[in-house]
């Protein structure tokens, strides 16, 4: 609980708060020692938590996030080093940085045990360690990264490609995009299997950001295809996607992105 930002309270302060609550007849009161910088990012990973937005510490965090929390000096120094390297060396350098921070977050003795193509879920990440990794990489690279980082980029290789594009100005390719979609497809298939075996094994709140991104991408693709063919496929696609199951979304990904690869 302490790692999540909920520290044990001082006994005297806790008893005083309890006494005040009972004395004044408070029936809907929560007293806690909360480190909002630790607690809120992990708590709000799946979706915003507007009931907490008026808390001054949370409002400050949200303002900082809007302004961009990357260290631009770190970004400039790292980008300068990377652009002087050939593509393969860029890949190796950024991968080494990502694996080092993944290992540190997970408590490994070194990056050797971090498999670059393995999903973060399989590596042992949860919402708390996901936010910690995001904060570490943002600080080390100067790139403002979302709290949903490991959902948007589900393994170290995917994060490496994203950081290289941000730092070196490289453009995404269909090959790298399809690789990321393939990783997401595998994760979705695992989730479906776990859900069918035991629904309690699947945290739907963690899947929501991924599904939302996929829906947005597919809606854009359908809109583009509709405009090129003169049809109105975007609205029907959006309607179909809003009620699609996880298995149906996997079929859609196979169908749509398979046609792109062809």
TrEMBL record:
This is Carrier domain-containing protein. Pfam families: PP-binding (PF00550). It comes from the Bacteria. Residues 92-167 form the Carrier domain. SMART domains: PKS_PP, PKS_PP_betabranch. The keyword Phosphoprotein applies. GO terms for molecular function: fatty acid synthase activity; phosphopantetheine binding. The keyword Phosphoprotein applies. Keywords: Multifunctional enzyme, Phosphopantetheine, Phosphoprotein, Transferase. It comes from Streptomyces qinzhouensis. InterPro entries: ACP-like_sf (IPR036736), PKS_NRPS_Biosynth_Enz (IPR050091), PKS_PP-bd (IPR020806), PP-bd_ACP (IPR009081), Ppantetheine_attach_site (IPR006162). One of its GO terms (biological process) is antibiotic biosynthetic process.
